[in-house]
Amino acid sequence: MPHPLETDKEESEDESAFRQRVPKDEGLTAPDVFEVAQAGDRFAKSRMAQISRYNTADICALRNAFNPGLVTLGGGAMLNNQSWVLERIESHVKEFCFVDPPSLTLSPLGEDIGLYGALGTYRDRTKSQSVVEVANSASSTFD
């Protein structure tokens, strides 16, 4: 029996537009990958299936360890491909969750989620509690 994170047989179709672009490092972006996968490119679809399994394994590892009732997901790929990403994660939950699966929802922070993460990291590292302090120190770095 294959490991749960292994993909189905790796696609090695030479006509895969996605596979031909990867080794050439032609600046592939997440929208490019989603586009070719949704258009039916077998290699891109197999890579997206693998990513879905990894994402699901990570979400379920958190669920198994900490038992949160709700997991919010965000980021550009999630915002622009909500149903595609959620459907694939939900299709693998039973493989990885040993407890009841969590509810999954889109983060209400939208595209600003990265900014909130950066602010949180800054506050943790500087022990700053004030947004004004953060704004003032950020502007002083450009003086």
Structure description:
With 143 residues, the chain is mainly α. The protein has two domains: 1-108, ATPase, nucleotide binding domain (Nucleotidyltransferase, domain 5, 2-Layer Sandwich); 110-143, no CATH class. Helix content is 58%, strand content 6%. The protein contains seven helices and two strands, in the order αααβααβαα. The chain has helices at 17-21, 30-38, 42-66, 76-80, 82-96, 113-126, 131-140, and strands spanning 70-73, 103-106. The chain has a two-stranded parallel sheet. It is globular. It starts with 16 loop residues before the first helix and ends with a helix. The relative contact order is 0.11.
List the keywords.
143 residues; mainly alpha; Nucleotidyltransferase, domain 5; 6% strand; disordered C terminus
CATH topology category name of the largest domain: Nucleotidyltransferase, domain 5
Could you tell me the strand content as a percent range? 5-15%
The CATH homologous superfamily of the largest domain is named ATPase, nucleotide binding domain
Spans of at least 5 consecutive residues with low confidence: 139-143
Tally of helical runs? 7
Count of individual domains: 2
